Amino acid sequence: SMNLKGRSFLTLKDYTPEEIDYLLELAKDLKTKKKQGVTGNSLKGKNIALIFEKPSTRTRCAFTVGCVDEGGHPEYLGKDDIQLGHKESVEDTARVLGRMFDGIEFRGFKQETVEKLAKYSGVPVWNGLTDLDHPTQILADFLTLKEQFGSLKGLKLVYVGDGRNNMANSLMIGSAKMGIHFTVLSPKELWTDQELILECQEYNKVSGGSITVTDTVDEAKEADAVYTDVWCSMGEEALAGERIALLKPYQVNAELMKKIGKENTVFLHCLPAVKGYEVTEEVFEAHAEVIFDEAENRMHTIKAVMVATLGNL
Ligand code: CP
Ligand code: NVA
């Protein structure tokens, strides 16, 4: 079996396809057990710090419930509770938390902060979202796709909207690792960073996946799954006006689903959703069952990451 003990989880770039698949299978197993009322104790005696510079519903609750289910103790540290990067350097806070906690989750702005926490704390650090990446979300999305389609390889996933945000980036990385044909349908102004595309094309050489970046609906046909995210990510609220103008033609509505989807196309959204903007109420409600499976799967997959990297398996 796979040994991920002691590893941090900062981006899926650091994980092989086999390791990602192992985490998905572990999550599936933990989910089945939880449905039977069986939880574990692999985090017994472990204390984990949950640092949040930005708000959260799913990620915070998934780490909290996942940790408690496995017998561990989670401690929430909100942005006004600690002085991270303001009155105390990230390096110093990391060294303190590393003396007291067995694992650290971080959600915030800079990818550099989560990297520093990992470097200076000496304990596993899990990325609960940064401006650049949201790797735990991808595990939940991929578990959901496996539940829907059986396997990931060869699926066609079309991401519609802000092609430069953390979700576009991390879906591109995850898809390239797992052999998914990934399309970004987005206005040119919001196309994904070219350097990341080149990096992911290297993963695709191994996995057989592909990347298409286009502003043309006609080039995004036959999707197995359509995915969108908010037009303004946390911290970008001031950009609302220009984003709405840019992205209005890229709303996921019934017409777009008809054009780029097939009979069994699923619609995914990491949530929270702003209905009437990136997705219509109609499309959202038509796919609500899978969307909330996806939200539930945040818990099972995050639990799997903690158990695999920190737990007594
Ligand atoms: N999808 C997601 O990360 O949700 P939260 O912001 O509520 O954690
Ligand atoms: N792109 C969104 C994702 C939320 C889960 C944000 O960063 O706000």
UniProtKB/TrEMBL annotation:
This is Ornithine carbamoyltransferase. GO terms for biological process: citrulline biosynthetic process; L-arginine biosynthetic process via ornithine. It is found in: Cytoplasm. Keywords: Cytoplasm, Transferase. Carbamoyl phosphate binds at S56, T57, R58, T59, Q83, R107, H134, P135, T136, Q137, C270, L271, R298. HAMAP family: OTCase. Residues 7-147 form the Aspartate/ornithine carbamoyltransferase carbamoyl-P binding domain. GO terms for cellular component: cytoplasm. The gene is arcB. It comes from Anaerocolumna chitinilytica. One of its GO terms (molecular function) is amino acid binding.
